[in-house]
Structure formats: C-alpha cells, structure tokens
Amino acid sequence: MNKHFLKSIRDKMPESLKYVTAPFFRIKLIKNKEFCKYYNLLERREVISSERIKEYQLSQTKGILVYSYQNVPYYTELFNKINFKPEKLNSFDDIKIIPFLTKEIIRENFDKLISTKKVKGGYYSTTTSGTTGEPLKLLLDYDSIFKENAFVYYFRKKLGYQFEDRLVTFRGIEFGKKFWRYNPINNETIFSPFKLSRLTLELYIKKINEIKPSYFNGYFSSIFYFAKLLSENNIKLNFRLKGIFLSSENINEVERLFVESLFNVKSLTFYGHTERCVIAQEIKHNEYSFDPYYGFTEQIKIKDNSFEIIGTGFLNKTMPLIRYKTDDVCLTANDGTVSIIGRRDVNDFLIGVNDEKIYNSSLHFLSDILINVTNYQFIQEEKGKSVLLIVPNKDFTTSEIAFIKKEIEKKTKGIIDFEIKVVNSLQLSSRGKFKRFISNIKND
Fold this sequence. Notes:
This protein is α/β, with parallel strands linked by helices and 444 residues long. Helices cover 32% and strands 25% of the residues. The strands form five sheets. It has an eight-stranded mixed sheet with strand order 4-5-3-6-7-8-9-10.
C-alpha cells in the first residue's frame, strides 16, 4: 500500500478509530522489510568480531560512493575533478581526498545533489530545525524512516523495551486545539509540550494514568518540566515506568538525575540528526559510540581533544550526503567513546554591554536563589539587556522578584540589565524544543 496514502489516512483518522486500527498500522512498521533487515543486522552484530564490523562499514561506504558517482551529478563532477575512483576504495583513509560537504554547498547545488535514479519506495522533503540559522531543505528516502527506527528500537532494548510496550511522548507536532494525539505506528500517545503548565497538569495526569505507559519518551525539557510539576505538587502516578527515552536536546546532568530519581528509572538517549548521516548510542550518561552500520563517521580535530563530527550516511540514496559537516563538536575519551558538546555556534550565553560573554556555567548559582521557580529562560534582544522568564511554583511570592534581580545583578557585576517576568510557560521552538538561552543578537 502506498506510504503517502497510509500517512494521510493515519493523520486524518478520528482518535477513537486510531486505537481500533492500531495493530494494522503497527505491523506496517515492525514487519516492514527494511526495518526487519536492519534490526536483524544489529542483533547479529552482537556475536561477530570488530574486524567483520569494519569490513561491513567499509563495504557500505564504498557502495554509497559508487552509487553517488554513478547517479548524482554533483558527485560525478566532483569525483572527476579530483580524480577520485570510488570503485577502488580500499581503506577509510581513501575518502579523505573528497572535500567536505557544507550546508552552503547543499543550498547552492540542491538540484545537482538529487539522484537521477528513481529510489524504490519514493522520497519526501524535509528541513532541519535551523538551530544554527536558516533551516536546511533535504530529500530523504521514505524507507530511511524504517531503517532509522530499527536503530532507535535496537538502542531501546538496553532498557528492556519490547515492541508491544506503550509510550507517552512529549514532542512538538500539529495538535490544533487538542492536548494529545495517538500515533498507532509507534504505539505512543504524543502530548503537546506547548500546552503543559500548572493549569493543565491535572488533565495531563488523568490521561497519562489512563494510558499507563511503560516508557516516557521525547524532549527532555518537557519531561523535566512535567517531573518538576509532579514533585512540587506532591503527586505520584498510579503506575510504574520501566524507563525514559530522551531525544533531540542537550541534557543537564543534574536535572536528568532528578528525573531518574523521581520516577525511579534509568533514562537513555541517542545522538542523531535530520540529515541521517550519523547516529550514536549512549553507553553511559553523555558517553556515546557512533554506530558503524548507520554511516561512516569522522572526527576532525579542532583543538586539544575536541573534534567536529563529519558524516557519510548509508540510509539515504535520494540525496546522499558524503563527508557532511554537521557543525557538531565532540570530545573523545580514552575508551573510544565521545561526549557530544553540540553546535559550536549555539548562543548558550548572554552578551554584556561591552561584549562580555556570560555562559551558563557562570550562572550555576541560580539554583540557590530560584528555590520557588519551576523553570526559567533567558531572552536577549540587545547587548547588555536580558529578560528572565520564570515559571513559579505554588510557594512563590512576588516579593522574591526583587531579591532574584538583586542577586543576579550582583553576580554579573552590572554588565547586564535584567527584567524579570513571571509566566505560565516558556518559549519553545516550532517543534517544541527548549533552549535555556534565546538570543536574537547576531553572533560575531
């Protein structure tokens, strides 16, 4: 059955009917040919040698290079220009002759980066979130969705996940006037991160208690906020979670430990991105290992032990990305794992009147003065001035505003003038993601 048609039916179907037809849609994922192929590959990998894993990765790298040379005009011209013969690839070092692919190059050569060979299953258009600026348009194979899910589901096994388990997910999608929507394909009920607040908490709790999910899933900021609201109101859920799956955001370790302690479970995340070039499984908190079956990942040294992440993906043939600069940075450890720092040019700081930079690490004292604050966020429109949005808990009093302002300005030595606003909710991106610092000042 056509994937576009299935998606259209799923999205327009009444909620009550989605529950009835859930097994039909669910089987479309877990019985999908590409999903099963990759999931089985990952399971079989557990008992083979590291040498054979590298051989598989090299063969996949060679395969996508040969395919790109034969079918993608941009790479045909590029490889001819640099006299690169992909069919002669014998080692990962051979790929280093190929220039890096940047977002600017993709925008300038978009049509030439599209494969002239029709991909089985078709493709769809998407964009990146635009965290570092202008969103990037991409074309992705429809089958890459199933391949990607195979990796995600395989990673979840670490917390005991089984295909029949129910999820409650906090993620930004189109909700309209609704607070949640059921997604039968992933057996999840997706809750709006935009509408979660003290005013809607009771509604959320009632529905989640009805569902009794095995796992929470989605944006950490929303799960943390939900946990804080439960803790502050001394509310306990009427079921036990098995674990929490996190995605798409940088995670504060102290806040993560709070969430794990409150629900008495472990949490797990992975590193990935819309471009489907790189994926990494979390081994321990903030320690990742790049998956060799997803793509060939390079770490290009920037300084000391920090590296930029470069990816060549295996999953997408409609618009293959070879030696793509993700703009993400990682640190390496002696055991081969990496910690992901994130984007180099994300403005996780405030700018003072004389261009001083006040980083998040310099504001650690906030936890001592924001005792009756559930969550907070800085918004900056001009140098030397910032708005601090705070979501108060039930014990907060307006008299605390003057104290908070005085303490922050004492620590920041008067280089930033703060305005404090009490709000019911914080600003999220169009996809429901949270950033502690939102800056509309151009970063020079």
